[in-house]
């Protein structure tokens, strides 16, 4: 969200080491811990029979928050294990609504200085209050992290594990010597929690929904996971990253339900600009909804159907390398170019670890009636029962599916 290109490039360079190949290898161990807790939590009560019904959206959200907070601050929120911090997702959703509305206010320049101050307690209702509560949470986590870094520095010690904020706190511009201000660090703190947890949580819940809607697809994915690993200890990279159908299922979910489905608004600057042959005056807000692009039938035949095979080029799928390349070029759930999501590779890894652990260790079925999809009595555009529904308020609001889980007991050799 940094407008100045030089400032954006600088902050990007500061963040890059936290998402490097080396950092990803270190992060995999921590994400695996959360993936195991997710699988165990879903399966609780399913030791001998099917577990009680559980909302996959909630558990996927808890997973997202837990691994992101652990990676970012060296301390998990612990949502997969207890209820102490279960209030955070609800507050963040409420806060995102407030920010969404505020962002479109014509007098935003007058409102922005008041955001994050005591005045916010008295304007904007509960959503504004929740926005401030979330901001305070992120700032407090950052303050704790900064205090730890300073304490270790004075003791002449180093962190055993370099988390995201280690790089932010210790990076500086090699030319100017500039470091992040406290305000910039606070902004990144709030953004990392929200963006990192929401995208993974939504995609994981949506993928399970589509697998339950398509039993043949579920069967094929379960077979791939179980044939490639003999124990949960083996579920790791590089082998995990080579499973083609697992990757295709995630790609197709991201196509169907990009975490940020609507456009990211951009204001046309002075002098205006021409887009696709149309002149757009300055001051006009423009954007490209990924949801629309991802459902273009010219690129994605049968765009409303969940078909992971469309991402695999082979005679058996009927797809050519050209058609797959065209699909990849048109699908951009993490955006493209210099402002794409820096956490893209970490998100893929987290999704693969979570799905592989769940499907290797457990059988999953619909709990009662399938929830999370469209219905014939809903408004036009939300009547497709096989499409996972979400509302875009910066974050993706969703619910379901309700699942039941049964632990898969492996036979000893």
Q: In words, what does this structure look like?
A:
This protein is mainly alpha-helical and 413 residues long. The protein has one domain (5-258, 332-407): Cytochrome P450 (Cytochrome p450, Orthogonal Bundle), CATH 1.10.630.10. The protein contains 13 helices and nine strands. Strands 1-9-6 form a three-stranded antiparallel beta sheet. A two-stranded antiparallel sheet has the order 2-5.
In short:
This protein has 13 helices and 9 strands. The protein is mostly helical and 413 residues long. The strands form 4 sheets. It has a 3-stranded antiparallel beta sheet with strand order 1-9-6. Strands 2-5 form a two-stranded antiparallel sheet. It has a two-stranded antiparallel ribbon with strand order 3-4.
**What would CATH call the class?**
Mainly Alpha
What general form does the structure show? globular
Mean pLDDT: 87
CATH architecture title: Orthogonal Bundle
CATH homologous superfamily annotation: Cytochrome P450
Unreliable residue stretches: none
SSE order, one letter for each helix or strand? HHEHHHHHHHHEEEEHHHEEEE
How far from one another are the termini?
54 Å
Percentage of residues assigned to helices? 40-55%
Number of strands: 9
Structural class: mainly alpha
- What amount of the residues lies in strands? 5-15%
**How many domains?**
1
- The CATH topology: Cytochrome p450
Over the alpha carbons, how many angstroms does the gyration radius reach? 22 Å
Largest sheet: 3 strands, antiparallel
Q: If helices are DSSP runs of H or I spanning 4 or more residues, what is the number of helices? A: 13
